[in-house]
Fold this protein.
Amino acid sequence: MALQFIHGGVDRAGAPMHFHVRDGRIEGLNAAAAPAEGAECIDLKGFTLLPGLVDGHIHLDKSFVGDRWHPHQPVASLRERLAVEKAAVAGAAPMVDRAEALIRQCSRFGTVAMRCHVDIDASTGLRHLHAVREAAQRCADIMQIQLVAFPQAGVMSCAGTAAVLEQALAAGVEVLGGIDPTTLDGDAEGQLALLFGLAERYGVRLDIHLHEPVETGLGQLLRIAERTRAAGLQGRVAVSHAYALGEVPITRALQVREVLASAGVAIMSNAPGDHPFPPLRALHDAGVRVFAGNDNIRDCWWPYGNGDLLQRAMLLGYRSGFYTDADLMLALEMVTTHAAAVIGLPEYGMGEGLPATFVAVRADHGPAAVAGVPVERRVVVQGRWV
């Protein structure tokens, strides 16, 4: 790999940045401003250099990217939605090809790592897991993918699913998922006891989908926080969506945020278009790790999305009323450093000796990149321009 000298660009705060890339790693960050002998000079004037984007929540097995257009089908219930999805996925292009197409599309926007929730239940077994793993292997040179065993159809209410979840963990899945312990599963204590028990036994992280409303949802968050502290899993548990935090008066949400912060439970939001969502700035200011992901992209749940995490950060800021540079920077952190911390991404960031993995965007600095979602980008993974 040729020695390169990257110069002319700025960091996310707008400060000048230059460095060499040697053997795929950053060397001499903001040291000598002249290139080393024999180095290829790459001028990124007008670009902001950001650490690679990290998608904290995506469903590669569901998307129809890489397939024909599938018109959205309205339904009357969650169970009906799951049935429609199973039928549509069964008749779509091969899952491994669709997953690979979406991974590569996300990569072109600057995503370098993602946490992927994969449907696991008694009827599908590990088929989705095998397909997504194959797609991940095909794209291993451009994307790090952490897999979540996600019991979309329920845990306690879907007979046999618990055993399949354990099979997935035994097969090396890094994260265990859950979903709506009360409203979908009808057994909050049973589901959470099972999930936390498996997490402790296999040493994995937890990421639980929670769409439950108002006080039901808040009660679930308190249960999750209590179990997190009891199991010593602080910093290893996340709740995705947590709509209830955005459905109650802010004073009530602030009470719960203190419990989440003390338990080290992270909160993921994708700024859903038709639903209230958590008060991100208030959670962050109390010490709760807030992060983001694209969630569903062009699938049976909704037809929207292209995989661009800068666009997702803009939507988070837009819907949250983020106008100051500090607020826009928080939106950026939700798709970079915060998401990387939640999934436990090793060797992440723009630092001396770290892998030269970054995205250069045509913008003045990080806040401008979030607000404007620039089209022109350069993506580099371990020194390779992709």
